[in-house]
């Protein structure tokens, strides 16, 4: 025989021997107290019974026990009945009423009272598929997972042993003594107790409800991070934001980018781009383009400051604004260093270089107080304390000052104002009152300039224009023609006309501020979807289903209605990259909570 044939024959025999050894290594190893063959009743099966000990089955690192087994040696397949137990190392153990195991495919199926235990959780279901090659288990007839903190129910579930991860789909409910989570789709990591929520999801407790369409929740430490249409509902507040962090034990929440805090008790809203909410203290802190909006008599008052703080129960709300405060209402606007609003008394205090515009009138003083009627929510009165000064630019230019206009002025120690139909109507200057008034006829012609001193002055405004001035206990006064009234005497000391700063719209509360750049959000991307549990590319004929199995080809098909509604195929590199570009793919660091982004209606185009 030629040498090359000898060598070929030798290697062929070696290969066949190795293949035979490998095949023998995959055969099921079964022992029992009693065994018998009944080809009539159970053709091709060795029937094995429990007497003292249960039937014991071993295969490739898995162990099984049962009361009755049917071993189909030619198909390397076993059916197990009664008190079925299955164990794979120290990772999982399973009990059921019935089980099947295919030694060729290492595929197990259990039904009837299935209980799967891992080191961190327990799963109960009616029917469970277990693929030992993939190291994954799957159910689609409803299941319940119990871990140290919660109970999770869902219609469909898939367990990834290598990650200790469960993917739950459809009617997912997490029940905890403190809250209930409901979600369309949820990934749960059993070892850490962390859950990722996808699709419309709520977390409901006695004191709050969280809603999001993508989120992260630590079920053991009871805190979470939420993005995409997220909000937190309290008793009388709702917090919205691109990114929300919530810690239930401390009742603390923080939000980033396009924040809205709705106060249903006081018909108001606060907006900004960073907020902290302390429920137990009934307080809200908000900054970064912070603005508080309160509806009064179908009109809204806007208050903006570097930061706003709201404290107190609904009946005793206090709003404080600090640094560069601006106030706007359709017929009233102002500025001050800080502001203090008591919603119980209706008192608003503008503190630190305050200035107030009502129509064409400008008022200044050491401090300004506005008073609202708490029942009608209409402005009732105002007070300007110390160095009160009201000025109104005359509407017609003066021919002797190159088209400049004069100023009607009233000054004194204190100014009192009253409102009619929410508009400033009457002003009273008391103590050391002085006035300069440009007197004009009905045709607008200047008749003279009245300059006087008196104990007090009453001024009447109509449609925000000064129409009448009455002096009480006048001690000095004279009407001058324009030509006889020196230019240097036409303005009282202390007049600082700031009409160019007047706020003409709600957008002007941000006037002069640098464009705002939203914080970049490190968000939660869509889940990466692994390949299907079953391989649909395999035809029915190619499926290795023993004749004795209770399963049929339809049981090995992925059903469209059972697939995740949200997710990116793990091999879809383009979509994964797109998600990566928009949000950082990582578990959020709850100490430095990441924050997402949506457009806010209060920001202008260059602020978005």
Percent of residues in helical segments? under 10%
Per the CATH scheme, the topology name of the domain at 142-345 and 514-527 and 564-608 is: lipopolysaccharide transport protein A fold
Mean model confidence by pLDDT: 84
Shape: rod-shaped
N-to-C CA distance:
87 Å
Low-confidence stretches: 1-25, 582-608
Q: Note the main sheet.
A: 35 strands, antiparallel
Query: Into which percentage range does the β-strand content fall?
Result: over 45%
User: What is the architecture of the domain at 142-345 and 514-527 and 564-608 at the second tier of CATH?
Assistant: Sandwich
Structure overview:
There is one protein chain. The chain is mostly beta strands and 608 residues long. Among the domains are: 263 residues, lipopolysaccharide transport protein A fold (Sandwich); 144 residues, Sandwich (lipopolysaccharide transport protein A fold), CATH 2.60.450. It has a 35-stranded antiparallel sheet that branches. A hairpin with a 4-residue loop joins strand 26 and strand 27. It is rod-shaped and about 130 Å long. The protein starts with a helix and ends in a 26-residue tail after the last helix. This is OstA-like protein.
Overview features:
mainly beta; lipopolysaccharide transport protein A fold; rod-shaped; 608 residues; disordered C terminus; 2 helices; two-stranded parallel ribbon; OstA-like_N; 35-stranded antiparallel sheet; signal; disordered N terminus; LPS_export_LptA
